[in-house]
Amino acid sequence: MMKTFPLFLLLLALPCYLRQRRIQVLTILCLIFIPFSMVFLQGCAMTSFMCYQEQLSPDETETLLLDIREQEEKVVSFYAVGHITVKGWMWESDARIFIAGIKDPFSLKIEITHMWGRPILHLLIRDGKLEVLSFDEQKIYLGRFTPEALSRFLPGVMADQDLIWSVLRAYPYLINGFHIGDPGPGQINLFNPREEERIELDMETLLVKTVSFPGRGIHLDFSNIREHDNIAYAVEVRMRHDHEKKTLIIRNEKMVFNADIPDPIFTIKRLDSFKMVYLDEEE
Hints:
Largest sheet: 14 strands, mixed
CATH topology of the largest domain: outer membrane lipoprotein receptor (LolB), chain A
CATH architecture of the largest domain: Clam
Order of helices and strands: HHEEEEEEHHEEEEEEEEH
Distance between the termini: 109 Å
Radius of gyration: 31 Å
CATH class of the largest domain: Mainly Beta
Number of domains: 2
Helix content: 25-40%
């Protein structure tokens, strides 16, 4: 009888104990849930506020577009030295690049060289013609300058004159005759009857991060934008394409703007041992 008495008392006390434990558990859950709910609600409010803040006002949008257009108009010529990588192309490793360009009349000279000094490709665009010296193939290509012809030697479908200039001059450009569309968070949308342009911004600095042309599937990334003599340029430019596995990356070590470029720069020395190929005939 004495042995069963403590067990009897324990059974009587158990419901009361469980009720107390349940109250303690509920109290703990409330102490956890209430602050979490407050943080969650504040987070939602903050997210809405941040989304609102990331929408540029019409005046801010207009000012930013005027700044980009002003930068476009500041540069009439440039030359640059740096590095180039084309992923998924004829060379994967880092190569040296020299670029010289004149905006009007459009003239462009590119020399790409292995890091140890062996030339890879010399490319010249002038007077509407394209001339390419391919050292790996030991061929000289001649023909009209067209986006299709250029894409054979550098990636980028429909890489027209404005797009080429933007990539190599290392700064965004605006499509002609644009209208401003509805903005997205941290974004400016432009369109004209022929195409659309999307400009993505770093909202802390209001610098351009990416420019996309959805109709062509082309994206240009501009990283580490600097200024020299009040002219802005990106230290690194990436050109990506939705439908291709190739990515063009140019890292600029030095850029000089609006200097006189000697006319002999815009020539290519043809080698007699190289085979001549006419691009127009191939088309």
